[in-house]
Write a structure and sequence with these properties.
Helix content: 40-55%
Strand content: 15-25%
Largest sheet: 6 strands, antiparallel
Strand order of the largest sheet: 1-2-3-4-5-6
Number of strands: 6
Shape: elongated
Order of helices and strands: EEEEHEEHHHHH
Number of helices: 6
Length: 147
């Protein structure tokens, strides 16, 4: 079984295993360069005791998979949509509302409910563009500076 990694808010990787997200517990790596010890990403909020050990790319030792919360597949799908939004923001010069409208058309209500508000997503698009230097020109600023 191939391991699936998704990006978190800060650019790190989370492992998705049996519909639950796991994060790296410490700095120790296995022979494949992957994190060796992982704990449930909900540990900080719910003190979830679930942990796994990655021996290699395909070998997962399940030390404790007793989660004290339910899996939220809609939240995972919402995170994938959020990553698509940020990827499109870097590559296009469309206004944030146009990007959001183009991607909101094909998602379910459950996923839309798990996403942040449209204002938060638009702000995140602007921040991402400023960070990578691909912000579209500010026409109001250009008009005022020529006077």
């Amino acid at each position: 079984m191939a391991l699936v990694f998704v990006k978190n808010n800060k650019g790190g990787n989370h492992l998705v295993y049996k519909s639950y997200k796991f994060r790296q517990e410490n700095k120790e790596l296995n022979l494949d360069g992957l994190p060796k010890y992982c704990r449930c990403s909900s540990y900080d909020s719910t003190r979830c005791p679930a942990r796994i050990i990655l021996q290699s790319q395909s070998d997962v030792s399940e030390t404790n998979l007793a989660h004290n919360h339910s899996a939220k597949p809609s939240k995972r799908k919402a995170e994938e949509v959020r990553q698509q939004i940020l990827k499109k923001a870097k590559s296009s010069t469309e206004v944030p509302q146009a990007i959001l409208a183009s991607l909101f058309g094909g998602i379910s209500e459950e996923v839309a409910g798990a996403l942040p508000s449209t204002d938060s997503l638009a702000r995140e698009i602007r921040r991402e563009r400023q960070k990578c230097g691909s912000a579209p020109p500010n026409f109001k600023f250009l008009k005022n500076s020529q006077n």
